[in-house]
Amino acid sequence: MKKRNIDISIDIYDESELNETDKTLVHHAIAATHNSYSPYSHFSVGACVLLDDDTMVIGANQENAAYPVGLCAERSAIFAAQSQYPDKAVKAIAIAARDISGQLLSKPITPCGSCRQVILEMEQRYNNDVRILLYGRECVYIVRTIKDLLPLSFVADDMRTH
């Protein structure tokens, strides 16, 4: 038997330590939480994507009584960006959330599995890492690539015979 250890690195910042671009990205994600349609979970999530030309595109979670047809904020932002700017690579995404009382979460949240897979696809499509900024009132986690949140990931090459 062999053992494989997988190490990930997450940088933890105080919001005041972020550079201006990252602050703006986070603030757009926070503002996007107000665009959430979440009458069932009352969990409002906002995201802001930064493209390689510094364009920013926001998204918010959108729920539906038929739960599977809703959409997370991360995918909402990425799909909007790719629909409007199909030739622009995603450089970064910021994510923020509010709880049932409307308060911003004190600790950062991470993307769900579906969103992680979509972010991975963006990395593969444009052959570049996507930085992920996860906002919480207490701190901001910055992850250098989705592979740190999705180790042993499944990509298109895995479907090809070798």
What does this structure look like?
By secondary structure, this protein is of the alpha+beta class. Helix content is 24%, strand content 22%. It has helices at residues 20-32, 73-84, 113-126, and strands spanning 10-13, 44-51, 56-60, 90-98, 131-135, 140-143. A 6-stranded mixed sheet has the order 1-6-5-4-2-3. Helix 3 links the parallel strand 4 and strand 5. The longest helix is centred in the C-terminal third of the chain and has 14 residues, at 113-126. The protein is globular and about 50 Å long. The two termini are 24 Å apart.
Point out poorly predicted stretches: none
Order of helices and strands: EHEEHEHEE
**End-to-end C-alpha gap:** 24 Å
Average pLDDT rating: 95
- As a percent range, the share of strand residues is 15-25%
Alpha plus pi helix count: 3
Biggest beta-sheet profile: 6 strands, mixed
| Shape call | globular
Percent helix, as a range, is 10-25%
Strand neighbour order, sheet with most strands = 1-6-5-4-2-3
Sheet/helix structural class? alpha+beta
In total, the number of strands is 6
**Cα gyration radius (Å):** 16 Å
How does the SSE layout of this entry go?
Elements: E1 10-13, H1 20-32, E2 44-51, E3 56-60, H2 73-84, E4 90-98, H3 113-126, E5 131-135, E6 140-143
Parallel strand pairs: 4-5
Antiparallel strand pairs: 1-6, 2-3, 2-4, 5-6
Q: What key attributes describe this structure?
A:
162 residues; alpha+beta; six-stranded mixed sheet; 3 helices; 22% strand; globular
Task: Tell me briefly what this model is.
With 162 residues, the protein is of the alpha+beta class. The protein contains three helices and six strands.
